[in-house]
Write a structure and sequence with these properties.
The structure is a single chain. The protein folds into 3 domains: 124 residues, Periplasmic binding protein-like II (D-Maltodextrin-Binding Protein, domain 2, 3-Layer(aba) Sandwich), CATH 3.40.190; 100 residues, Periplasmic binding protein-like II (D-Maltodextrin-Binding Protein, domain 2, 3-Layer(aba) Sandwich); 74 residues, Double Stranded RNA Binding Domain, CATH 3.30.160.40. By secondary structure, the protein is of the alpha/beta class. The termini are far apart. Helix content is 30%, strand content 24%. α4 links the parallel β6 and β7. Strands 2-1-3-12-4 form a 5-stranded mixed beta sheet, with helices on both faces.
Length: 316
């Protein structure tokens, strides 16, 4: 008697489906004798497209883009939940665990803009007083730190929607998106700075922002696979899909965020890289009135303890 089909749970956005299909293809290639199926679940975040993400965990619930997938896991309606790891809260529901993280994509953020202003100083593409839209408190805080003159506002929607909003709003100079998401949706930046991809409006340009200027959020550019803790069969599958260095890096970053007491929408950035047997992490926090930055190194064998130590160093 054949074993039951393994259900891969995902959101229904174009990016979520691209990531789920990537995992599906990896599963099929690695385990050709097993049956896999993708199922789409609509999350709270998908239903609240007009809500401010800055309110997550306050007026809005945590796990905006993950809760319904987790419920499916707990109720055994799904076996693997595929997440953009940056959306996955650091505290998981009882009985669930992070089974794997895929090899990390480009961690940088990308400034999408219409006209190169040739401004002097940081982010020269934006003119003095330019209006920039981003729903991320982390991006807003780092933009304001680099360019206090910028006017910041919120924006929601998927990548094509945000590109349309930018193109159609004459007062809006730019927005910021994750390089990893753009890459997975097959957008790319041409040598002349124009953005190319499906349904890109005319005149849209793009530039990747250095991490020294814009640290990514915890887990950015990695795909996380959440599973039931007690499901040994699925654990063996996700173990084969895991990228060791990425998993260690994001484990450290998530421990850092937990240690800072922040959630996915906190104005906190962190980026850990593996160098031999060492983890090195850059981190920034805007949780207090003053910006706090640190760079620390620690042992690869203890990524969680290292991440916690970075949080303590930053809080001190």
């Amino acid at each position: 008697m054949p074993e039951s089909t393994i259900i891969i749970a995902t959101r229904g956005s174009a990016l979520a489906l691209a990531q789920a299909n990537f995992i599906f293809d990896q599963c099929r290639a690695t385990f050709p004798r097993l049956a896999f199926e993708i199922q789409i679940f609509k999350t709270t975040g998908d239903k609240l497209q007009t809500a401010s993400l800055a309110q997550a965990g306050q007026s809005l619930p945590k796990g905006l883009f993950t809760k319904e997938l987790e419920v499916a896991l707990v109720r055994q309606k799904a076996d693997i939940a595929v997440h953009s790891l940056k959306d996955l809260p650091t505290e998981l529901p009882a009985g669930l665990t992070l089974g794997a993280a895929t090899k990390r994509e480009d961690v940088r953020d990308v400034l999408i803009y219409k006209t190169d202003a040739g401004h002097a100083g940081p982010i020269p593409q934006l003119a003095a007083g330019a209006r920039v839209a981003t729903s991320s408190t982390r991006r807003q805080a780092q933009l304001a730190a680099a360019r206090p003159d910028l006017q910041l506002e919120e924006i929601r929607g998927n990548v094509p929607t945000r590109l349309e909003k930018l193109a159609e709003n004459d007062e809006l100079a730019g927005t910021i998106l994750a390089a990893a998401g753009l890459n997975r949706l097959h957008f790319f930046i041409n040598a002349d700075g124009t953005l190319e991809g499906d349904a890109v409006p005319d005149g849209i340009r793009a530039v990747a922002l250095d991490t020294d200027l814009m640290l990514p959020c915890v887990g950015q550019a990695a795909i996380g696979l959440e599973i039931r803790e007690d499901d040994g069969r699925i654990a063996k599958i996700t173990e084969r899909l895991n990228h060791f260095n990425t998993f260690a890096a994001v484990t450290a970053e998530r421990a850092f965020l937990r240690g800072m007491g922040g959630g996915c929408q906190s104005p906190v950035g962190a980026h850990a890289v593996i160098e031999g047997t060492t983890i090195r992490m850059q981190a920034v926090s805007f949780l207090n009135d003053t910006v706090q930055r640190t760079e620390q190194s620690g042992a690869l064998r203890e990524p969680e303890a290292f991440g916690q130590a970075v949080a303590e160093a930053l809080r001190a």
